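Sample entry (342 residues):
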Amino acid sequence: MSTGVGLHCPGCDAEVHQQDRFCENCGQELGGKRIALPNNEPGPPGACDGCGGLRYDGDGYCVGCGQLRGAPDRFAADLGAVAVATDRGISHARNEDAVAAAVLDGLGGATVIVVADGVSSSEDPQVASGTAARTGVDACRTALLDGLPAAEAAMAGLAAAAQAVRDIAVADGHAPSCTYVSAVVRTDADGTEITIANVGDSRAYWLHADAPDDPGNPPSQRLTSDDSWAQALVDAGAMDEQAAMNDPRAHTLIRWLGADGPAKPWSDSCIRTLRTTGPGVLLLCSDGLWNYLSDATALAEVATATAPAVAARELVEFALRCGGSDNITVAIVPVPQPGEVQ
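Predicted structure, serialized as tokens:
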């Protein structure tokens, strides 16, 4: 076992080991920072939609009329190595997307992100997406801390998320479902490695600003292939992408995470790795964004122009201005990571 020389608890500065999950001296959880959104902390109360009152009991119900307090339309977080935002949008009554992320200590600045989009035609889609995002990040994080390579850790996260969503079902016909896209970002002396896993039609993009050709920095591009009817038509040569996306069946999924799906819902090509020695950003998003802006070059103009947290907010606002017909979730990872030099 690694001695972990040079690793110290951020809480009490006691020496810890690479594999430790908690500090034996003070009990603080180790391994970095984590976030999962939406959460159950609605923030400062607004007026009750039912009666206009401003007082709520401990469970969030209005003391005047008993109506449940509404959650904010948007949640956002900035962990430095990744900025995330998720918004209900305009047309949906609730946010059925979810996003989780972890920034690990002692692994070359490894960052793990999962975006999951609940399938609205299923029951309790928000439960599926929240479960998949949290479980996927935690399982991938654990695998990385155990020393597994990024591709194996990404698959461990996906497999755990798929099983966790399958386990949600409480009766026949109850099959909460969601899409899933994850990323592991790690930097070493040779550059940055980005490992993607996906099921469904949430997407990942590698983006950077226009610059002279750099053989070490791949062009802006989509890193995932949709598991959708539209993508199947394109792959079969039956339609070009624009025509396929105009087909009324375009967003029909052919793979997803859900209790009604197979034990192995992913394709054999669901994992992809990209290496770069140049600067840019990794973008993960639900279709609430790419429905309105799917071109990698156009996305790069927004995602690389400002700080990640600002860019995430601007992309959400763009989707809202375009109609906000779906929930919108955006996660942006700057490369190189904060504090790194390339």
